[in-house]
Amino acid sequence: MRSGTHTLILLGLAAGIAACSTAPPHRPSPQVIPVDRDGRYALSEDAAPHPDEVPPDLNAIPDAVPRVEPRARSGNAPVYEVFGKTYRVLDSSKDFRERGMASWYGKKFHGYRTASGEIYDMYQMTAAHKSLPLPSYVRVTRLDNGRSVIVRVNDRGPFHPGRVIDLSYAAAAKLDMLDAGSAPVEIVALDPLASTPPSEHWLQVGVFEDPISAVVLRETLTDQGHPGAQILIEESERGTLHRVVLGPYTDIGTAQSLRSRLSDLGYTPSWIRP
């Protein structure tokens, strides 16, 4: 925050050269991707893990943390073909946004290679997409309940009509869509350089003009196991604002995990710089 005076009060706590030519442009033949995987794609239904196989802290698995990575050596052909249909891979995920139906994939692919060459782990925060570069990072928000997760796209799919993204079992669990099997979502690509929180790792959980509302939220957070909740008072042109914050956190993984847990509780936490 750069405007106003802040007081921290502890209240109980690749460009190329174009050549002129009359010849038609070269169009590479699509790469045919073998997606049968010993018949797993032919199965009409995926399988969830047995309850004994599910980690007890499934909903506490932290979101993927966006970071700069090179493009995967496999899975990034400019065009590819699956089941006789041609798909094109984007040059970049910049400004990508999409809405549609999300589904999830689980046990029948668990332990097998993804399109990027990595091994699919249904307990990691990953996803499959038809056109985003591999890897990419996206925020997936379920539109009918507001829940949101950050996943790393490292696979191709889904190739069923009407679906825009396949989420890992863990990601689907955090969006509460395992039973339904699919849900309406919005996908927003994240820029790893812009998605890194400030070095202080402070999380704003709520902001109010009314100080009593801020105190109530602080006490609620304390009761929920966050005794470090504090209120930051900001004097600005809009008047006095009371920001309920948690932090600072020195480890980005810890901060991202907390942000995800708060989102699961219905909050909309955001990074701030006190």
TrEMBL record:
Its EC number is 4.2.2.-
Name a single GO cellular component: plasma membrane
| Alphabetical keyword list | Cell membrane, Cell wall biogenesis/degradation, Lipoprotein, Lyase, Membrane, Palmitate, Signal
Membrane topology is: Lipid-anchor
Which Gene Ontology BP terms does the record give? cell wall organization; peptidoglycan metabolic process
* CDD domains for the chain: DPBB_RlpA-like
Give, as one word, the top-level EC class: lyase
- Chief place where the protein resides: membrane
Q: Does the keyword Cell membrane apply?
A: yes
Localisation per UniProt entry: Cell membrane
Q: Which Pfam families match?
A: DPBB_1 (PF03330), SPOR (PF05036)
- The domain of life for this entry's organism is Bacteria
Keyword Ubl conjugation in record: no
Molecular-function annotations in GO: lytic endotransglycosylase activity; peptidoglycan binding
> The SPOR domain covers which part of the protein?
195-274
Q: What does this protein do?
A: Lytic transglycosylase with a strong preference for naked glycan strands that lack stem peptides.
The UniProt similarity line reads: Belongs to the RlpA family.
Designated name of the protein? Endolytic peptidoglycan transglycosylase RlpA
Please give the organism: Fontimonas thermophila
